[in-house]
């Protein structure tokens, strides 16, 4: 379980997150929604220590995140970046196997086996293994990034806007994959998105981030029914944009 | 030495640009951090052998062309200048000796290192800053991979190997360039040329150039990596990082050169 307590974060004097309190519960799919620029990515990056908070605390499985524990905590979390962020100079298989090679010192055969297993699990063609990231489509890149994130069998997987920028059919396929992995690997999945349809479709629970605070959090049914003013505004803006 | 008054004036000038000064101090700290943090950590140097070999190919072998051309031309120019100005006053082997000494003490190391900053240093900054901007560095970190260990360390080791070797190579080509001019164009005897070279050689001076090689390599590579890792978002970040790294590298190499000469002159 991840416990985020009273987290504040400013950039250049501008408050982005203002006392965030939120839990990630074991086994769930939690989606954090919010307008673009509210600090959703910042929140995910805080939990893996890519950004330092100004105040507050983050606990991952009862380990307090700090300078000494950050590498241990990162091993528990797979992170899928919005841009996929594969290392351009390495073929897909090397990208997926990086941590196995440099953190766990496994031999080539074991790495190869585990990489192929991960590639199958994200339903990529095995031919993709030897290709370079710049030759992959958006959907394939995302799958490769997910394969890299699950290679250490992390307890948590964070997805930053996993479907943004993909065409609707590919986006649905990625959502299916997230659901499948969550069940098969018994992980806790945290998704950040501004896509309400996607959130409602696959989550157990939804939290809403606006004006630097968690303004709503509840199960999907509650999210659909709530009279919460922030959620209503967000839905109105979203569906207005959809109609256009 | 700097006396109290000079120091006061320097501090006064610096206080006119407090932000620039802080930025500068911050960068110097960052560069040293990059150097020490990448070198003094638990390393599996053997599992990184292929990374190091790749970097030697990129940094060392990739720079052979520019170092060759710069050195041969440098040798031609150096001997031409000395011959042109002093040729009528001093014996020919002495001209050769003067060129050879300046090559071994100074020109080989400086020439090769500046060429390496332009060819290898820029590539390092551009590569790392592009990775930074496209979040590849962040992705490495989330996999518990330390970029100082995985990216900076192999480049540092590769520079410690490549810089001294390329400096020796450059010294040879400098002298070869000098020979082209003085033997084949100017018609001096090959015998007296070789005699001048032999006469001029001094082990301490050669050792000095090797020390320079390692120091300049450490300077250029840690600066290039530091500015790459601290590049700001956007495509503009890559260009800015590369320019700043080159400026810092060139100035630092000249400063270090001066200090190394001073230290060796005490000997
Ligand atoms: N490294 C950074 N330096 C300065 N400002 C940042 C940084 N990262 C994010 N921000 C700012 O924080 C705010 C939230 O960003 P982000 O979390 O990316 O939003 P989103 O909810 O769209 O993911 C934005 O205003 C952004 O400009
Ligand atoms: Mg974002």
Explain this structure.
The complex is a heterodimer of chains A (244) and B (267). Chain A is of the alpha/beta class and 244 residues long. Chain A has one domain (26-51, 61-243): P-loop containing nucleotide triphosphate hydrolases (Rossmann fold), CATH 3.40.50. In chain A, 40% of the residues lie in helices and 25% in strands. Chain A has nine helices and ten strands. In chain A, the strands form two sheets. Chain A has a six-stranded mixed sheet, with helices on both faces. In chain A, helix 3 crosses helix 4. Chain A is globular, with a radius of gyration of 18 Å. Chain B has 267 residues and is mainly α. Chain B has one domain. Helix content of chain B is 85%, strand content 0%. Chain B is built from ten helices and no strands. In chain B, helix 4 (64-86) runs parallel beside helix 7 (147-185). The longest helix of chain B is centred in the middle third of the chain and has 42 residues, at 92-133. The model of chain B has no long low-confidence stretch (mean pLDDT 90). The A-B interface holds A 45, 48-50, 71, 74-75, 77-79, 81, 83, 85-89, 98-99, 101-103, 105, 148, 152 and B 44, 47, 127, 130-131, 134-136, 138-146, 149-150. The structure holds adenosine-5'-diphosphate (ADP) and magnesium ion. Adenosine-5'-diphosphate binds next to helix 1 of chain A.
The poorly predicted ranges of chain B are none
Provide the β-strand percentage band of chain B.
under 5%
Tally of alpha and pi helices of chain A: 9
- Average per-residue pLDDT of chain A, rounded, comes to 94
Give the end-to-end Cα distance of chain A, rounded to a whole number of Å. 40 Å
Overall number of structural domains of chain B:
1
> Can you list the strand order of the major beta sheet of chain A?
6-7-8-3-9-10
What is the fold's blueprint, element by element?
The complex is a heterodimer of chains A (244) and B (267).
Chain A: E1 2-11, E2 14-24, E3 29-33, H1 40-47, E4 55-60, E5 63-64, H2 70-76, E6 77-80, H3 92-102, H4 108-121, H5 138-150, E7 156-160, H6 168-184, E8 188-193, H7 196-202, E9 205-210, E10 213-219, H8 220-225, H9 229-243
Parallel strand pairs in A: 3-8, 3-9, 6-7, 7-8
Antiparallel strand pairs in A: 1-2, 1-4, 4-5, 9-10
Chain B: H1 4-16, H2 18-39, H3 49-60, H4 64-86, H5 92-133, H6 136-142, H7 147-185, H8 190-200, H9 203-229, H10 235-266
The structure holds adenosine-5'-diphosphate and magnesium ion.
Residues 40-41, 82, 160-161 of chain A line the site of magnesium ion.
């Amino acid at each position: 379980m991840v416990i985020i307590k009273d987290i504040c974060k400013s950039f250049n004097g501008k408050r982005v997150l203002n006392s965030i309190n939120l839990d990630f519960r074991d086994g769930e799919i939690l989606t954090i929604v919010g307008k673009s620029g509210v600090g959703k990515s910042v929140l995910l990056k805080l939990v893996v220590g890519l950004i330092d908070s100004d105040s507050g605390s983050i606990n991952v499985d009862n380990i307090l995140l700090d300078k000494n524990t950050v590498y241990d905590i990162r091993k528990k979390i797979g992170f899928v970046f919005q841009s996929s962020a594969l290392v351009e100079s390495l073929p897909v298989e090397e990208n997926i196997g990086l941590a196995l090679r440099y953190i766990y010192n496994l031999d080539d055969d074991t790495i190869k086996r585990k990489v192929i297993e991960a590639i199958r699990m994200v339903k990529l063609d095995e031919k993709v293994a030897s290709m370079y990231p710049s030759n992959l489509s958006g959907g394939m890149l995302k799958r490769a990034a997910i394969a890299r994130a699950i290679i250490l069998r992390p307890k948590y997987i964070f997805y930053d806007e996993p479907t943004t920028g993909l065409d609707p059919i590919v986006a649905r396929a990625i959502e299916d994959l997230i659901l499948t992995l969550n069940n098969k690997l018994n992980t806790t999945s945290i998704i950040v998105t501004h896509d309400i349809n996607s959130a409602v479709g696959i989550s157990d629970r939804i939290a809403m981030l606006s004006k630097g605070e968690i303004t709503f959090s509840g199960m999907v049914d509650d999210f659909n029914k709530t009279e919460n003013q922030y959620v209503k505004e967000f839905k109105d803006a979203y569906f207005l944009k959809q109609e256009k | 030495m700097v006396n109290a008054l000079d120091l006061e004036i320097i501090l006064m000038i610096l206080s006119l640009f407090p932000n620039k000064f802080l930025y500068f101090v911050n960068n110097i700290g960052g560069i040293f951090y990059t150097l020490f943090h990448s070198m003094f950590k638990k390393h599996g140097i053997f599992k990184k052998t292929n990374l190091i070999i790749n970097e030697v190919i990129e940094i060392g072998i990739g720079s052979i062309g520019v170092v060759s051309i710069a050195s041969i031309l440098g040798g031609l120019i150096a001997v031409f200048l000395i011959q042109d100005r002093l040729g009528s006053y001093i014996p020919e082997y002495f001209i050769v000796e003067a060129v050879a000494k300046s090559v071994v003490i100074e020109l080989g190391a400086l020439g090769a290192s500046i060429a390496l900053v332009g060819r290898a240093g820029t590539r390092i900054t551009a590569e790392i800053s592009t990775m930074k901007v496209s979040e590849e560095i962040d992705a490495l970190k989330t996999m518990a991979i330390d970029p100082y260990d995985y990216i900076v360390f192999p480049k540092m080791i590769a520079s410690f190997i490549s810089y001294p070797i390329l400096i020796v190579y450059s010294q040879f080509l400098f002298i070869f360039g000098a020979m082209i001019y003085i033997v084949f164009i100017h018609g001096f005897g090959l015998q007296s040329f070789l005699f001048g070279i032999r006469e001029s050689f001094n082990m301490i001076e050669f050792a000095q150039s090797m020390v320079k090689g390692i120091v300049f390599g450490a300077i250029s590579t840690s600066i290039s990596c530091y500015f790459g890792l601290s590049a700001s978002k956007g495509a503009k970040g890559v260009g800015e990082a590369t320019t700043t790294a080159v400026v810092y590298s060139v100035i630092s190499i000249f400063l270090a050169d001066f200090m190394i000469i001073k230290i060796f002159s005490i000997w």
